[in-house]
Design a protein that fits this description.
Elements: E1 11-15, E2 18-21, H1 22-41, H2 49-74, H3 76-79, H4 96-113, H5 118-125, H6 128-136, H7 138-142, E3 157-159, E4 162-164, H8 167-188, H9 197-214, E5 222-223, E6 226-227, H10 228-295, H11 299-304, H12 306-326
Antiparallel strand pairs: 1-2, 3-4, 5-6
Helix pairs in contact: 1-2, 1-6, 2-4, 6-8, 8-9, 9-10
Length: 327
């Protein structure tokens, strides 16, 4: 049985005698792809693209540092005798959980400093992580690392002359599907939305995959007698489940409060409109009364006793004429 994929050459090319490895090339491409996704999505979440670039710059630098430190801490025996190897990133040794912790932590720090809602911004940022992972995981293939134990499955790959699980491929495919899901959900689902929803989805579903696939790997980082990625994945799944329920409820309460405020505003507007109409009618009524008073006894009186009014007028005229004549 042959390998599903050819045995790779870890060197992509050389410049002035310096070998550039596929690992570094693919991790860089993954970071660029994830950053591009965030940069394009940022304005839709009300985030200035200049601020998005600041987040990408600082988040990338500190994320890489965090990924390396995380790996070194759990592999200290490997580096204790040769500290300069800590800075040799070309050979691999970046832990995704360390990168996520430092990268997302940097973003939250900057957003709070700028007084921007972190959850709203992170929902724009988070789909960039799985697409970056989907690409970057292929760096593990070229380094012949992050693989599983022996298998005779049709898609097994050869490492050190043995056919093994291509666990990097499992995670790459899962992260690609997760990226598609997050993008489609964000674009087409409008009901029941709340800030932080995509963050919770990513944290939960990525951890589900990592919990399963990590069980197949043979080069896992260990904490005590457990694989640290599995322990952390369980904790993240629980945290995201609780967080999702809390944020969903908070979103419903916020929506209900906004609806109540909108209804109250409409009722107040109707009352104000009614009061304005009544106030406009009162001067009109008063004007009508004034006109009637100025005309004499009243419209009905004039209509009913027109003859009496004429007789009174003639009597007054005759009396006035008689007085003048007598004088």
């Amino acid at each position: 049985m042959s390998s599903f994929l050819p045995v790779p050459d870890p060197i992509a090319f050389s410049i002035f005698g310096i070998d550039v490895r596929w690992y570094g090339v693919l991790v860089t491409l993954g970071i660029c792809a994830g950053g591009f996704v965030f940069y394009k999505r940022a304005p839709k979440r009300g985030i200035d693209q200049d601020r998005a670039l600041d987040i990408l710059l600082w988040g990338t630098v500190l994320g890489v540092i965090g990924a390396r430190l995380y790996y070194v801490v759990f592999e200290w025996e490997r580096y204790a005798g040769d500290l300069k190897e800590i800075f040799n990133l070309r050979g691999g040794g970046l832990a995704i959980h360390g990168g996520l912790i430092f990268g997302i932590g940097t973003a939250v720090f900057l957003l709070r400093r700028w007084k921007i809602d972190p959850l709203k911004c992170l929902d724009a940022l988070i789909p960039g992580f799985p697409i970056g992972q989907a690409i970057g995981r292929w760096g593990n293939y070229f380094n012949s690392e992050a693989h599983g134990g022996p298998t005779d499955l049709p898609w097994a790959i050869e490492v050190d002359g043995q056919l093994v699980h291509p666990t990097f491929l499992y995670e790459s495919i899962w992260c690609l599907l997760l990226f598609v899901f997050l993008i489609l959900f964000d674009r087409y689902v409008k009901q029941g939305r709340f800030d932080g929803q995509l963050v919770m989805f990513y944290g939960f579903f990525y951890s589900v995959e990592r919990l399963i696939v990590e069980g197949l790997r043979t080069d896992s980082l260990i904490i005590g007698s457990f694989k640290q990625a599995q322990v952390l994945s369980i904790l993240i799944m629980v945290a995201c489940g609780v967080g999702y329920a809390y944020l969903a409820r908070a979103g419903e309460e916020k929506e209900a409060a906004e609806s109540a405020a909108l209804s109250g505003g409409s009722a107040a507007a109707e009352v104000a409109s009614g009061a304005s109409s009544q106030a406009a009618e009162e001067p009109a009524a008063a004007e009508a009364v004034t006109e009637v008073s100025a005309e004499g006894p009243g419209a009905s009186g004039q209509a009913g006793s027109g003859d009496s009014y004429q007789e009174s007028y003639q009597a007054d005229y005759q009396a006035s004429y008689r007085d003048d004549y007598q004088e």
